[in-house]
Write a structure and sequence with these properties.
By secondary structure, the chain is an alpha+beta fold. It contains 9 helices and 22 strands.
Length: about 350
């Protein structure tokens, strides 16, 4: 026998432990490398190899005979001066001449190859980098060549992924200088400063102040967008993007979710709110009808909250192709039917 329960499956399989909170209480609960011009090509590599001293930002290709896991893969020396070599692991390369790094790799590979042979070619010489981390189209380490603004570099990395947050964070080392924006704040360790920049401001304003000139070793971060989730007797269910807001009201959320369905039991709605550092969710009862009528204060729904609107008893469901009237709560009905093997 086939059972069709429309629009409810997502909520029923959540499996969170909940505790009830009144809505009023829940609302209250809430060092830089020296700049060098970038040179590429065999002539520069031949001129400087093997006496060139490697540093952060140099990109090399390792050719290790009889070690296909390593050979012909570009390797970038990171900000700490390290390279991560397959099979071998992390090796500190900064400060070593090319010939010295080759000798280091030969020693390390003797565990795996009787007579290892290694050559290293430089494919890009270092310039001071900036780091793009998170939900960018092409996150990574990019050379800072000349005066480059945030908007210019965002274009260079391909922009943001569709599910990215609309707020960008820029972090800068103290020794580089301060971020020239009034809302920049020191990092907790005191070794730098950070600022959050609205993508909307960058997009909507001509020559926005937030389009700062990036400095060496700046870290630009964007996280995935935070969502609020809706389920139950609403126009549509799923995740709703907060855009650049810290929260959405219940009335905003219901409207964005396509409104209440006729069978919605709006008086028995509830918010399931994550409890910090646990897999539990606190249950916050809501009477959406009273909120919509202006009799109760609208409620702030926070990121990662789930708004659930149950269905009234006495609604029609499809069971084996036949429309039947259900007078018991839906969850109890499902439990009984599943117990009977339907």
């Amino acid at each position: 026998m086939r059972l069709t329960i429309l629009g409810m499956a997502g909520f029923l399989i959540l499996g969170f432990t909940t505790a009830t909170l009144p809505a009023q209480e829940a609302n209250r609960a809430q060092q830089p490398a020296s700049a060098q011009s970038v040179q590429t090509g065999p002539m520069s590599a031949d001129n400087l190899r093997p006496t060139y001293v490697l540093g952060p930002g140099d990109q090399i290709i390792i050719r290790a005979f009889e070690m296909e896991e390593i050979s012909e893969r570009p390797v970038l020396i990171d900000g700490d001066g390290n390279i991560n070599v397959p099979v071998v692991g992390v090796i500190h390369a900064a400060g070593l001449k090319v010939s010295q790094l080759e000798a280091t790799l030969i020693i390390a590979l003797k565990k795996y190859v009787k007579e290892p042979r290694v050559t290293i070619n430089i494919v890009q010489f270092r310039s001071e980098p900036v780091f793009f981390v998170g939900a960018f189209q092409r996150p990574g380490i990019y050379p800072l060549q000349g005066r480059r603004t945030l908007v210019e570099m965002l274009s260079a990395v391909g922009g943001l992924q569709p599910n990215a947050s609309r707020t960008i964070k820029v972090s800068r080392r103290t020794e580089i200088g301060s971020i020239p924006l009034p809302n920049a704040v020191p990092t907790p360790d005191g070794k730098g400063s950070t600022v959050r920049i609205s993508l909307g401001s960058l997009r909507d304003n001509v020559n926005p102040a937030e389009d700062i000139v990036l400095e060496p070793f700046d870290v630009v971060t964007v996280e995935k967008a935070e969502l609020i989730y809706v389920n139950g007797a609403l126009g549509h269910v799923g995740g709703i993007d907060l855009q650049e807001k810290d929260s959405l009201s219940v009335t905003q959320l219901v409207t964005m979710a396509g409104g209440l369905k006729p069978e919605a039991n709006a008086e028995k709605a509830r918010i399931l709110r994550p409890v910090l550092n646990t897999s539990k969710r606190a249950e916050i009862p809501l009477n959406i009808t009273r909120i919509m009528e202006g009799k109760d204060t609208d409620f702030a729904v926070m990121p990662n909250d789930l708004l659930y609107v149950p269905t009234k008893s006495g609604f029609r469901q499809t069971l084996d192709g036949k429309s039947v009237l259900v007078f018991v709560p839906l969850i109890v009905s499902i439990t009984v039917l599943l117990a009977r093997g339907l």
